[in-house]
Amino acid sequence: MPLAPKDQKAKAVFDTTVTPSDLKSAILRHLTYTLGKDAPNASVYDWRMALSYAVRDRIVEPWFASTRRTWAEDRKRVCYLSMEFLIGRILEDATINLGLRDIAEEAMKDFGQDFRAIVEDEPDAALGNGGLGRLAACFMDSMATLGCPAYGYGIRYEHGLFRQWFEGGRQVEAPEDWLTQRHPWEFERPESAYTIGFKGHIDTSGGKEVWVPGETVLASAHDTPVVGWQGKWANTLRLWQAAPTTLFDLDRFNRGDHTAAAEPEALARTLSRVLYPDDTTYQGKELRLKQEFFLTSAALQDILRRFLYNHSDLRALPRHVAIQMNDTHPAIAGPELIRLLTDVHGMDFTEALETARACLGYTNHTLLPEALERWPTFTFGTVLPRHMQIVERIDAWHRRSYPARPHYVGIVKHQDVRMGELAFIMAHRVNGVSALHTDLIKSHLFPELHRLHPDRIINQTNGVTPRRWLKMANRPLARLITDCIGDGWEDDLDRLRDLEPHIGDAGFRAAFDAAKRANKVQLAAWIKDSFGITVSPDAMFDVQIKRIHEYKRQLLNILETVAHWHAIKTNPGAAWVPRVRIFGGKSAPGYAVAKEIIHLINDVASVLNADPETRDLLVVLYPANYNVSMAERLIPAADLSEQISTAGKEASGTGNMKFMLNGAPTIGTLDGANVEILHEVGPENFFLFGLTAEEAVKRREDPDQSRKAIEASKPLQDVLQMVAEGTFSPDQPDRYHGLVHRIWHHDYFLVAADFDAYHAAQGLAGAAFADRDRWVRMAAMNTARAGFFSSDRTIRGYMRDVWSVDPAS
Q1: Are 727 and 790 in contact (CB under 8 A)?
Q2: Strands 618-621 and 579-584, how do they pair?
């Protein structure tokens, strides 16, 4: 296999003055003076914390330097507001970006410690759920890498979404406990605290509306530095923790009312305790709205304080600040910024509105109407009475601005405050996250608003950071890439195209295949240790890992798995390709259908994995509590990437990009960024199936479409009969009657309509995998053509087209 010439290798700018001896000294210093331990008595936790503090020391210098330069040059900052930042583990990622990964491993080896065990001792930060939060984390990495001055604003959730486990195959939720240990990467900022109000009433003073909140809490800042590639720039992730404005009612306590005495603290802790509390009750809805306002108001107060430190004219705010709303959760930013500018700083309403719009951008992440938040006017007006007034004024202003249109598209309609419309109207730019998604926003989601504002919607296709998802997560493949094309691809992912000439070389293909197999061997060992199930690394690892939702169609996957199992049992002598079908993901606690699908997957796994006739050819695995660290284990080992959502429902996806980057061809529909992946790799390296978005809309017009599809498919009929008869639930044969009835009669997400096409595509994937040389060529071509899907490219687009921000480095 030819190697890259020396003159092709980019010059690294890492701090090469750091030696293992230097790092060891810093580790011992923190072990002794920060943790109060000596080496002979230190636990894995102690060593991890000492190493983390030593690495953090190396981040602080570029963090301070970046902050000083931003202030000195009066640079425009991006303020990225997101309910989720799914950052995963930080330690190894930080060592990768600082160029200290191998040095850290050597230092820990000298102490007699296993670097891998230390890394895996770190809990995942429970700050997100799925793609929305992981995208925000990738964006923070890319903004730091590109020298884009930025603050990420989120909530410091005490218990995150939830910790998932299975009882009898059913999902059970428990609180995450990541903060029971000290979090070594953050700096508490008690001086940066802001009062956040809720409820209350409106007074009039001097002809002005004055909000008198009935409840208040403090938002207290915790800062985590986010360092970019090669440690050249670092930004801040600022997370807000809620604290009581009145710490404790001693008088009530002394009168024996001990519970009531702690009410202020209980209210505050509730706000930053759990991500996405169940909103099937009124109390849950109110808590969600409070959380969103808590995050947004704290961030905006912080932004204005920082601006006013150096400037006095708030009309200049858009020249210095770009505020990005990551989905509709922070959509209250428009009304809140207007409130702060008018009620607190005395600006005229219209001028405040125009100032706010010039600052704000809105990223839409969903095509599901139910996911575009709507708050009953009673709830919204009760929790945020002043903001209800402002929303109505914004609505009236927008209505007056377009008097000639026949059908008014309002923010307040049918007794609901529609947050998608609010975000759209209050943003100067609205962006989709894939080419198809952006087109559907224009034509299906906001068609009337698009006609009024034809230049407002633009596309910024999502991306992922190659530093975490290839350089760190897949070290065998990363080494091979560097050996072939040299350094520098980590922050210039288009250079992966230089791999293409090597794909014709048998030596390169053998090395590529060996890298994949090394990852599969590691995953197989983890599966054996964790579940007691033996799988062959030579089997096809077929992986679907994402939030459990009907439109993502884990149901289609498991039904086809049953069909595959049935085919093996019917014809055991055929040349079947061994498969390991791996699922991962959580359902929202109140989403009954998704939880039923989880139960079915686990029931099917129990039966198939115990079948002596087929278990060497087909295994189904569903590891509980899928998170970033599990993704880093599964994605490098995956052979086939399942991206099978109903066409027209997935905004983009980023898991599809991570699989592609790591050499896993896609089996998928023309949905989200699959369209662009197909364009990049070509149809010969992609297993395409299913209805298009337009065909899906047309199919739903037939009320009998699902019944007709089932009657036309003998394999699907057999599968549904097995499920309905209790083949996979012998203790309760009627367990899945409701799910089967839903497929027959209410199959909105077109599982039945796409089943045969998916089944055929799976057959083609199996045949391709059996031809090892063909498969390795396909896998390598996916990696070579993944350059477009770097989050660096995405952030450059935002900087140019949305934020008007120049890079500082």
Answers
A1: no
A2: parallel
User: What string of DSSP letters covers 477-513?
Assistant: HHHHHHHHH-TTGGG-GGGGGGGHHHHT-HHHHHHHH
Amino acid at site 723: V
Sign of the dihedral through C-alpha 673, 677, 683, 686: negative
CA distance to 15, 488, 687, per residue, from 95 (Å) = 12, 17, 37
DSSP string, 626-692: --HHHHHHHGGG-SEEEE-PPTTT----SHHHHHHHTT--EEE-S-TTHHHHHHHH-GGGEEE-S--
Q: Using N-to-C axis directions, what is the helix angle for 263-271 and 282-310, rounded to 10°?
A: 80
Q: How far is CA 175 from CA 222, 283, 625, in A?
A: 21, 19, 11
Sequence-ordered list of residues with C-beta below 8 angstroms from that of 142, at least 6 positions apart, any chain: 148, 228, 463, 465, 790, 791, 792, 794, 795
> Over the chain (809 residues), what is each successive 10-residue block's mean pLDDT?
46 66 97 97 98 98 97 97 97 98 97 98 94 96 98 97 96 95 96 97 89 97 98 98 86 78 82 91 95 98 97 98 98 98 97 98 90 94 98 96 78 95 98 97 95 97 98 98 97 98 98 98 98 97 97 98 98 96 96 97 98 97 97 98 97 97 98 98 98 97 98 98 98 98 98 98 98 98 98 98 92
Residue with tokens 């950052």: 87
User: Residue 326's beta-bridge partner residues?
Assistant: 363
Amino acid code (one letter) for 717: Q
DSSP 791-804: HHHHHHHHIIIII-
Helix or strand run (H / E) with residue 545: strand 540-545
Rounded distance, CA 809 to CA 744, Å?
A: 58
- Tokens 């997370």 — which residue? 239
Residues marked as catalytic: 365, 546-547, 552, 654, 658
Sign of the Cα pseudo-torsion (335, 339, 342, 345, in order): negative
Q: What is the DSSP letter of 468?
A: I
Residues 804 and 800: their CA atoms lie apart, in Å, by 5
Token pair of 731 as six digits: 């203790």
Task: Quote the CA–CA distance of 54 and 506 in Å, as a whole number.
Answer: 44
CA neighbours closer than 13 Å in the CB half-sphere of residue 687: 27
130 three-class SS? coil
Q: How many CA atoms lie within 13 A of 655 on its CB side?
A: 31
Measured CA distances, 594 to 550, 588, 590, 599, 739 (Å): 7, 8, 9, 9, 10
**Residues 6 or more apart whose Cβ sits within 8 Å of residue 658:** 464, 469, 631, 635
Residue 260 to residues 279, 643, 655: CA-CA distances in angstroms? Answer: 25, 51, 47
CA distance 476 to 662: 10
